[in-house]
Structure formats: structure tokens, C-alpha cells
């Protein structure tokens, strides 16, 4: 009996070894060549079978691929396979797969992209650059939306950035069809992120902490709210609001003015163009007006108004909500006196979405006992309004 069992195990091991190809081995499936990588269980989608191979229509890149004997996870899509393929109309990536630099460059018939399965893997710079027909993109689980990702995608109308904490350098450069951006988890907006988005009128960035040079240069923004979480507008952030003739309202939720400096002794600051100081109403929390009137750069605005509703607590009370205890060690009790449905997402100060809950009753709870001690942001969205509540976990 022992000999029979040993023979079975030996045969099974030989079969498995033969089935799983050695690292570096290349094999072909359909129109593509794959290379075995890592520990031998993953592959890179390397290239087309021949340079003359034409890829068209709807392209689905699965999470795994088989060579006929073994299933490999596709861990990486190289830069070459899809560049300049004019016939591709849609892209779906089904696995948490890394995408290399310019992997889907200039696919001029591409209209939809779904890479929502990518959460931890990296999407390389300029991944979809100059896909001029692209209209919708779902990158909902991607946290770092990188440099030039959709640059030159002039038809892009909708993009899901639910979990993006970083909006990369020039990410939406010249996306002239975008009219609104909702980035509920974004904490960092890099240089020229929305440069030349001439029809972009609305941007929601409720937990942003840092905004870099020229982020909103030459957009169509009419009003903008900068949250209390914002701690850095880069001092070299020239042209941040350059060529925004439509801007009439700038709302700051922080009670203490951000420290801004003049670029020269003559009192010039290039974050704001001079005409904005006269054309834009600066709205600040109740009681903060005096501080803004005294602060460099902010004091240049001819109209600074106070609004009590900008206080987080006031907005919370206005909508009929209360959170207790705060600080807490485990459970946050929530009362909703107006009985409205709400979606609550809990973020850390790095903008990572940690948990979410839908509330449809007068009383509810959110358990944060598994979270480390620190400050967390409860982003509350209802049909009648939205606000962010800071909760301290001890």
C-alpha cells in the first residue's frame, strides 16, 4: 500500500512539473505571446504574435490564461501589444493586472474602458494617452491614477474615480468633454491634473490635502469648495487658477487660512490672476473672516463673506444628524432625525476608503474597533446634502 501511494505521489508531481512551464518560457494563445514570470504561476502579456496581427472590436483581457495544461495569472500587460490599434472599441481588464507605459496608446476607436478590477497593481504613465474617441472609463478601485493617464482623450465624458487617492500629473490634460469630476477619496492632486479641461465646471474633492502647480489651469470651473483637510497649496503653485474666467465663487472650509506667500516684493501672487480678486467671492466659515482679511494673498479678495453653514457641525445639524461618542474606542452611534437614506464611507487621512455603510433608519452604528487610533473622516452623502464628519478613534 505504501509503495502504491508513493508511486501515485511521484507521478502526480511529475505531471504537475511538466504542466507548469519554466520561468522565461514563452507560449502563444490566440493573437498574443505570453512569458512565464515570477514563481512560475504568472505570465506577462508580451506582444502580438506578429507585428502585422490586427486586433479589433471588444478586447477582454482575462485574469488568467492557460497554455493548455496550466492556468497562469496575467500579472502584467507590456507596452507593445495594443499600441495604435485603430480597430479596438472597448477594453476590459478582468484581473488585478499591472499595465505598462502607453499600453493602450492612441486607440482611436476605443470608446469604453473598464479596469475596475485593478486595485493594487500599477497603471503605467500615459496608459490611454490620445485615445480620442474614449467616452467612459471605470477605474473605480484604482488608488493611484497616474501621470498622463487620459491625456488627449478629448471625447472623455465620464470617469469613475471612487477610490483614487492620487490624481496624477497631467492626468486629464486636454479632456475637453469632461464637465464634472467626483473624486471622493482624492488627497493629492498633482501638477496640471486638469489642464485645458475647458468645459470642466464642477470638481468634488472633499478630502484633498495637497494641490500642486497649475492643477485647475484653463478649466471652466464656476465654483469650487476647498475642504478643511487641505493643508498644502504648493508655494510654487503658479497658474493654479490661470485662465479661469468663469470662476465666481471660492469656498474654504478651513477656519485657519492656508499660508500663501507673494512671489516678489511688489505683492504679486501667481496662484490667482489679479482679476480674480475682484470677480470671485471668497466664502469662509463663520468667525473666520477676520483671519482671512489679515492673511497674505487671501486679503487681496475684495469680497470675503462668512457662512455659518460651512461649519461641519452646522451642516450636520442642519441635515439632522448626530454622531457620538466622539472620541470613541469602538462604535460610533449615529442618529438621523429626518429619516433619510444615506451612504457613509469612512476614510483615513490618506484618503483610503476603509469601510462603507448604507443607512436607512433613525439610529445606526458604525463599528471602527478594528481601525488604528487616529482621525477618520466619515463622508456622509444623502439626497438632501453631504458633509464630512471627523471622528477620533482612541
Automatic annotation (TrEMBL):
Protein name as it appears in the record: Leucine-rich repeat domain-containing protein
Sequence ranges assigned to domain Secretion system C-terminal sorting in this UniProt record: 324-392
Keywords associated with the record: Signal
Family annotation (InterPro entries): LRR_5, LRR_dom_sf, Secre_tail, Surface_bspA-like
A Pfam family per the record: LRR_5
Keyword Transmembrane carried by entry: no
Top-rank taxon, per record: Bacteria
Claim: Nucleotidyltransferase is one of the keywords in the record: no
Segment forming the signal sequence: 1-22
Amino acid at each position: 500500500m505504501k509503495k502504491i501511494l508513493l508511486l501515485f505521489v511521484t507521478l502526480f508531481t511529475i505531471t504537475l512539473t511538466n504542466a507548469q512551464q519554466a520561468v522565461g518560457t514563452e507560449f502563444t494563445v490566440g493573437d498574443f505571446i505570453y512569458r512565464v514570470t515570477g514563481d512560475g504561476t504568472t505570465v506577462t502579456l508580451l506582444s502580438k504574435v506578429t507585428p502585422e496581427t490586427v486586433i479589433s472590436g471588444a478586447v477582454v483581457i482575462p485574469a488568467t490564461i492557460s497554455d493548455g495544461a496550466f492556468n497562469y495569472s496575467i500579472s502584467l500587460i507590456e507596452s507593445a501589444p495594443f499600441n495604435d490599434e485603430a480597430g479596438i472599441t472597448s477594453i476590459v481588464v478582468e484581473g488585478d493586472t499591472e499595465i505598462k507605459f502607453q499600453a493602450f496608446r492612441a486607440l482611436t476607436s476605443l470608446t469604453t474602458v473598464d479596469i475596475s478590477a485593478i486595485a493594487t497593481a500599477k497603471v503605467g504613465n500615459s496608459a490611454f494617452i490620445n485615445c480620442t474617441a474614449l467616452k467612459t472609463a471605470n477605474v473605480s478601485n484604482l488608488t493611484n491614477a497616474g501621470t498622463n493617464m487620459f491625456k488627449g482623450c478629448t471625447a472623455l465624458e465620464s470617469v469613475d474615480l471612487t477610490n483614487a487617492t492620487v490624481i496624477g500629473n497631467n492626468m486629464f490634460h486636454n479632456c475637453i468633454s469632461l464637465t464634472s469630476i467626483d473624486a471622493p477619496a482624492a488627497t493629492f492632486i498633482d501638477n496640471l491634473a486638469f489642464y485645458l479641461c475647458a468645459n470642466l465646471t464642477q470638481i468634488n474633492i472633499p478630502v484633498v490635502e495637497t494641490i500642486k502647480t497649475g492643477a485647475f489651469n484653463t478649466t471652466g470651473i464656476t465654483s469650487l469648495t476647498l475642504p478643511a483637510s487641505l493643508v498644502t497649496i504648493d508655494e510654487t503653485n503658479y497658474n493654479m487658477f490661470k485662465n479661469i474666467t468663469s470662476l465666481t465663487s471660492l469656498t474654504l472650509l478651513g477656519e485657519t487660512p492656508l499660508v500663501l506667500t507673494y512671489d516678489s516684493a511688489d505683492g504679486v501672487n501667481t496662484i490667482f490672476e489679479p482679476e480674480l480678486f475682484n470677480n470671485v467671492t471668497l466664502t469662509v466659515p463663520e468667525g473666520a473672516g477676520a483671519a482671512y482679511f489679515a492673511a497674505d494673498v487671501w486679503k487681496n479678495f475684495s469680497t470675503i463673506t462668512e457662512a455659518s453653514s460651512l461649519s461641519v457641525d452646522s451642516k450636520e445639524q442642519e441635515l439632522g444628524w448626530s454622531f457620538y461618542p466622539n472620541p470613541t474606542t469602538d462604535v460610533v452611534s449615529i442618529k438621523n432625525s429626518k429619516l433619510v437614506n444615506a451612504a457613509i464611507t469612512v476614510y483615513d487621512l490618506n484618503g483610503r476608503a476603509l469601510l462603507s455603510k448604507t443607512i436607512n433608519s433613525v439610529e445606526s452604528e458604525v463599528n471602527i474597533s478594528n481601525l488604528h487610533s487616529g482621525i477618520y473622516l466619515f463622508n456622509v452623502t444623502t439626497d438632501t446634502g453631504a458633509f464630512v464628519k471627523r471622528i477620533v478613534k482612541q
